TrEMBL record:
Keywords: Membrane, Transmembrane, Transmembrane helix. It comes from Vreelandella titanicae BH1. The chain crosses the membrane at residues 6-23, 35-51, 63-84, 105-126, 146-163, 175-199, 211-235, 242-264, 284-306. GO terms for cellular component: plasma membrane. The keyword Membrane applies. The keyword Transmembrane helix applies. GO terms for molecular function: L-lysine efflux transmembrane transporter activity. This is Lysine exporter LysO family protein. InterPro entries: LysO.
Length: 310
């Protein structure tokens, strides 16, 4: 039952064993991760183009993603609002942050580019499908699987060399509390959404375990449950990040824990500049710890829940 879990977790653990001290090599690894994500999402788009009754399937994808996102957001916001009322955590004054996004559109640019890559894959699949037939879609699935193994090894290496010692993570109680609250509320949302999405309980938990890490959740879910559910996971987690860009400036001074936590795993990277810009430097270590913990939890949780399918 756990053979698939072990096969996919193995490159993650092997990557985590690699210590990289060279800044140039770390930058190369970061670029390789980004490139791998784009490549796999392109393959996912091609696989989507191979679905029968594509129009109705895409409509189903959008409806399921909206349903999962709505339930998850409701659970997350309620839990983080409760936590915000109990944590003595207040954002500081808004400093001028170097290289911070100058607009919400600029901040969302990377997220929107990923959507464009998936759409490009769908278009490529529709254009090349009549010429190459099933060979195209089978090759896309196979290549996506091998690039996934490479990506997991690179992500493991990134986590090992992120500069976050375990002691620092465990001692930051606020970051830990935010991460645990976001994770538990997301998993409860996954259980609630599972029957509405015609999924088993463990598949619902897997769908909810992306915690905003849309590129990885889409890849892992798509590999096990097919490109349609991979697309649902992708758009569910991507929409979280897009809403976080809008939500953070509005609520960070009244409900700081909610603003930091809602971005999930992205609070350590993509939404971090917005958190710093509107909440001050005091919010940065809390956001980084919260995002790091969720990033560390997401891959093994997704793979563990999927492995329970047998």
């Amino acid at each position: 039952m756990f053979s698939g879990l072990l096969i996919v977790l193995l490159p993650l653990f092997l990557g985590y064993l690699v210590r990289v001290r060279s800044i140039q090599l770390q930058n190369l690894i970061n670029r390789a991760v980004n490139g791998s994500v784009y490549l796999i999402l392109l393959f996912m788009g091609i696989s989507l183009a191979g679905l029968e009754n594509l129009t109705s399937q895409l409509s189903r994808l959008g409806g399921n993603a909206l349903l999962l996102f709505s339930i998850t957001t409701l659970f997350n916001l309620a839990a983080l609002w409760w936590l915000s009322r109990r944590l003595t955590l207040k954002a500081g004054s808004s400093p001028v942050v170097k290289n911070a996004p100058t607009s919400k559109l600029a901040a969302m640019q990377g997220s929107l580019l990923l959507v464009a890559v998936v759409a490009g894959g769908v278009i490529a699949g529709l254009l090349l499908g009549p010429l190459l037939g099933d060979r195209l879609f089978n090759s896309a699935d196979l290549l996506a699987e091998w690039v996934l193994y490479l990506l997991l090894a690179l992500i493991g290496c990134q986590l090992r060399n992120s500069g976050m010692p375990l002691r620092q993570i465990l001692l930051n109680r606020m970051g830990l509390a935010i991460a645990v609250t976001l994770a538990i509320s997301s998993l409860l949302a996954g259980l609630a959404a599972a029957p509405l999405l015609s999924l088993s309980w463990n598949e619902g938990l897997a769908m909810a375990s992306g915690f905003g890490w849309y590129s990885l959740s889409a890849i892992l879910i798509g590999d096990q449950l097919g490109p349609l559910m991979g697309g649902v996971a992708f758009f569910n987690d991507l929409t979280r990040e897009l809403l976080a860009f809008i939500l953070i400036p509005l609520v960070i001074h009244r409900h700081t824990a909610l603003a930091i936590g809602y971005g999930g795993a992205t609070s350590m990277d993509f939404t971090l500049p917005v958190i710093q810009q509107h909440g001050g430097v005091a919010c940065v270590p809390i956001a980084v710890v919260s995002g790091f913990i969720l990033s560390l939890l997401s891959p093994p949780l997704i793979l563990f829940f999927l492995s329970l399918s047998g």
